[in-house]
Give the backbone structure.
Amino acid sequence: MIAIDAMGGDFAPRSVVQGALQAARKNIKVGLYGDQVQLFSLLYEFDLNWEKLPIEVVHCSQVVEMTDIASKGILKKKDSSLVRALTDLSQGAVQAVVSAGNSGAVLVGSVLLVGRIAGIERPAIGHFIPNAQGHQTFCIDLGANTDCRPEQLVQFAIMGNVYTKMLQHITSPRIGLLSNGHESCKGSHLVKETFALLESYPELNFIGNVEPIDLFNGRIDVLVSDGFSGNIMLKTAEGMHKAILESIEQAYQGSIWRSLLGFFNQKIFSSLHDQFDNNRLGGALLLGVNAPVIVAHGNANAWAIENAIKFAYKKTKTNFINRFIPPVIEHLKNHTLIVSEMNAKNLHSTIKFDRSV
Amino acid sequence: MIAIDAMGGDFAPRSVVQGALQAARKNIKVGLYGDQVQLFSLLYEFDLNWEKLPIEVVHCSQVVEMTDIASKGILKKKDSSLVRALTDLSQGAVQAVVSAGNSGAVLVGSVLLVGRIAGIERPAIGHFIPNAQGHQTFCIDLGANTDCRPEQLVQFAIMGNVYTKMLQHITSPRIGLLSNGHESCKGSHLVKETFALLESYPELNFIGNVEPIDLFNGRIDVLVSDGFSGNIMLKTAEGMHKAILESIEQAYQGSIWRSLLGFFNQKIFSSLHDQFDNNRLGGALLLGVNAPVIVAHGNANAWAIENAIKFAYKKTKTNFINRFIPPVIEHLKNHTLIVSEMNAKNLHSTIKFDRSV
């Protein structure tokens, strides 16, 4: 079963319930965690026969709000939909968690309740971003960690390297470091220190600093950044995409001739819309924790939630996290310099998870 | 005369000379600083009658390269086009400097040679970014300072406030702080500390954290950020814009029907192209120094250089910097908390510049 934090997100619980229903209709077993009065009422509103679908409602009396400080939300709201879902994941009662709620709280909760991969200090949000030519760049971190240390960025690079190798079957993924210029002298202190660390790391195919344009031209396979810059990049790309499509829409208004022209262009524009639509991606994996946690957009609509659940289902069905963990640990064992002492100890203890759906 | 760093930029000196020629044809007096052999040769290549235009060539034997460390470039290359141009600006021999070269070096050179506005610790790159509806958001810093302190971001906010008031005649510009979420709990340490400072500052109309989407929806008049995040945002917007236009171009290939459709759409797409074309902006002011220094894009083409020179000319003709400095100093005098002790002393000394073209 996939546990859904039904109370998390700008349009929760309505669009979350709707998205979960859509996924359940495709035979994915979902658990809706949240206020049962609201959840039952929405389920009946959307589908009078919902009880025939593989849906379970798990009542939780609390909600971690978007405005809650992450750690406080997790520590104080033991009966919140998020904490309950993550606890069930840690105990093996569910196989994955999907949340569109407070991403800081999802991070803290995952670390505290589900646990990190040995050697990884901070889990990070990673996802493929496609360009117009069909090339995909795996971007990590897209928003989990607003302040990072250079060693943590190298750990992101290692996770991105393993992830891309596994899913894109690239022998040696080209890794770029997000900066304000291609030159090695460019970047913040963080970027400069990370650059030096990555350069001294022969197992990674580090090609140097890259700029946001390289997300679109297929020059790299993995883009490493702290979560603040990565998030600004992601949200700017989305904002620009939305702004241009609105401009196009406006341009085809005002005269019959223009409206007619717009009509003929519809198919082209709708494919353009799909190409960069973040709802199609649905959600992203929180890489670095011991079980699949999927972070969906705060403003996810029902379709996005459905896609995030499908994504979670795929990851559990392929037993992805269990195959992802060993090569990451192997990497880190060889390069304990970037692992803090406390974490280094854990590297040699064996971790085993069995999470089939 | 406007001094042009003819050796700075990815396409220098060729596109810089070409852009300067175009500006000179519009009766703007320009000084081309750089290697005279190359400059004369290019001038004759572009226009056999260039000597009739208001162009002066100032020979300099050195170049601050893009790969030079900023401070070393400035301190060691005394006869570089950039250092000579900035020195002439500081001595009043020219009225403004335009450079598409190493922006870090332009910053350091401006601070050392031209001097800062009293109370301002770090000059910043500020510019209006238009959205599709014609609203303009003044963004500061777009790339001068990769690492900042909260007090410096407040100083950027003050400069943005004065700039927007002067040029857009808004009584109380809405100021937003770039973050990874609207909630006050979101953001890096830098953002959180800056948020607290800005909130305690009643003279500024601070509306809180904003996301990149707010650049496109007209919700704010001034967007404050450190130069790293601001630069990532700017370059992502440009990259996405370019990627979408390429997608559109591709979509109209493949069949006669599509090509024909593309032909009818040309006018609409070209206006879309212009709307966000960074070459139209040309260059941005380095705010916080005592005379007009204009930073152009590293990859500026001739048209961009021409526009940057026109922009510089306009700023000198309207005596902009001299009108900009007093209200900034006045602001800072009232709020010495955000000014370091060393800078506070300078606040009370009078600074005078007379820079008419």
